[in-house]
Design brief:
- This protein has 251 residues and is α/β, with parallel strands linked by helices.
- The chain contains eight helices and seven strands, in the order E-H-E-H-E-H-E-H-E-H-E-H-H-H-E.
- It has one domain: NAD(P)-binding Rossmann-like Domain (Rossmann fold).
- Strands 3-2-1-4-5-6-7 form a seven-stranded parallel β-sheet, with helices on both faces.
- Helix 1 packs across helix 8 and helix 3 packs parallel to helix 4.
- The longest helix has 29 residues.
Length: 251
């Protein structure tokens, strides 16, 4: 029986890589994102491998999310896996200098958007006693760094929400996994620095960092583990990245 996956933020990075690997493995894929042209290109590219449904979506809008789920074609209504990938970082300023609007956008996308999407599919998963919620967290939710203030806090929320979901779902066969990537070579920094490609390129300079396909491979493995296995949390860094020393300010 063909399974169905819903991937948010599918137009780039981890989301686009997940779209490709699930499609190539013959899953029905529902792809959402804000860039319609990229969604159309994905549908053309992946339609030869599996059934693809795309929808322009801003996960921050709960009405849009509910409308998407309610109006899915029959072929796509039985969602087996939700990959909550939509998210972003904006700015790298210290908290006293940061832009409050940037903070609002990160909270609305990384927290509230994830909640809206999860809530929209969860009741059906519990009813059929089957399903998997895969949340994309970050090492930033575990380890602080200067300028990571609200972004890191949103990813800490994702971690704790994932744990509490597991507690709520005890006794069902619905799984929850929080994937926590470290530095990865995606459009993440381009978005963080609001289109400043020079700043973004500097982040990835001379480093063999995680690629979107690496995370997509891990997610596909996670959702294909036996029914008795739940991967609670999986933190992954590039080999070239590790924890730094604790900083000390000296007069």
């Amino acid at each position: 029986m063909t399974k169905t996956v819903l991937i948010t933020g599918a137009t780039s990075g981890f989301g686009a890589a997940c779209a490709e690997i699930f499609s190539r493995n013959k899953w029905n894929v529902i792809l959402t994102g804000r860039r319609k042209d990229r969604l159309n290109n994905l549908k053309k590219k992946l339609g030869k491998f599996s059934s693809v449904y795309t929808s322009q979506l801003d996960v921050r809008n709960s009405d849009e999310v509910e409308k998407l789920i309610t109006n899915l074609p029959q072929e796509f209504r039985d969602i087996d896996v939700l990959v909550n990938n939509a998210g972003l970082a904006l700015g790298l300023d210290s908290a006293d200098e940061a832009n409050l609007e940037d903070w609002d956008i990160m909270v609305d996308t990384n927290i509230k958007g994830l909640l809206y999407c999860t809530k929209s599919v969860l009741k059906t998963m519990v009813k059929k006693n089957s399903g998997h919620i895969v949340n994309i967290g970050s090492t930033a939710g575990n380890w602080p760094y200067p300028g990571g203030n609200v972004y890191g806090a949103t990813k800490s929320f994702v971690q704790q929400f994932s744990r509490n979901l597991r507690a709520d779902l005890l006794g069902t066969k619905v799984k929850v996994t929080n994937i926590e990537p470290g530095m990865a070579e995606t459009e993440f920094s381009l978005v963080r620095f609001k289109g400043d490609s020079k700043k973004a390129e500097k982040v990835y300079e001379n480093a063999d960092l995680l690629q979107p396909e690496d995370i997509a491979d891990i997610i596909l493995w996670v959702v294909n583990t036996p029914e008795r296995v739940n991967i609670n949390t999986l933190e992954v860094m590039a080999t070239c990245q590790a924890w730094g020393h604790l900083q000390v300010h000296r007069n």
